[in-house]
DNA sequence: CGTGAATAGGGTAATTAGGGAG
DNA sequence: AGTGTCCTAATTACCCTATTCA
C-alpha cells in the first residue's frame, strides 16, 4: 500500500442517501438536523454523510452510543 | 464518471405496496409486523419494503407449502 | 468566469405509525 | 385469524427562492 494515506472516509451526498432510504433529500436533512445522522459540512454549508454509517443504518445495525 | 453509485436496493413505500396488492396500507403494516414481509425502517420509523421481494410475491412464486 | 444541477432555508399538505373497536 | 375503518401524533413530501457545487 501507499506510504501515506490521507484519512478520507467515503462520503455520500444528500441525494444519494435519500435514494438509498427511498425518501426525499429534505428528509435526510431533517435527520441530520435532529442529530440522528452524522453530517459533515462543506465550507459552503452543504451536508455530506458517512457511507459506513448510512449503510449500517440501512442494514439495521444499531449505531454506537456516543455516551 | 467513476463508480459513484452506492449499492442501493430499490425500495417501495407502504402506499405503493398496498396499491400493488390491492389492500389497505395498514394491512401491509400488519404483514411486516408479522414477519411475512421484510421491512426496512427510516430514521423516523416509517417502513420501506424491498421491491424484489414484493414483486416475487406478486409474480406468484410458490410459497412452498410445508404440508 | 459563466452554466446547470443540487442543496439549504421555510412553510404547508399528504402519509404513516400506533392503538383500539367493529 | 384476517381485514378495513376511525382517531391522534409524528414523520415525510412538495411548494418556493437564494446560495453553493461541479
From TrEMBL, chains A, B:
GO terms for molecular function: DNA binding. Gene3D superfamilies: 1.10.1660.10. GO terms for biological process: regulation of DNA-templated transcription. Residues 11-67 form the HTH merR-type domain. This is Excisionase family DNA binding protein. It comes from Haloactinospora alba.
Amino acid at each position: 500500500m501507499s506510504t501515506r494515506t490521507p484519512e478520507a472516509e467515503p462520503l455520500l451526498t444528500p441525494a444519494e442517501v435519500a435514494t438509498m432510504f427511498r425518501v426525499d433529500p429534505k428528509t435526510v436533512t431533517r435527520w441530520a438536523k435532529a442529530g440522528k445522522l452524522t453530517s459533515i459540512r462543506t465550507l459552503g454549508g452543504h451536508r455530506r454523510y458517512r457511507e459506513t454509517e448510512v449503510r449500517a443504518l440501512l442494514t439495521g445495525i444499531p449505531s454506537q452510543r456516543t455516551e
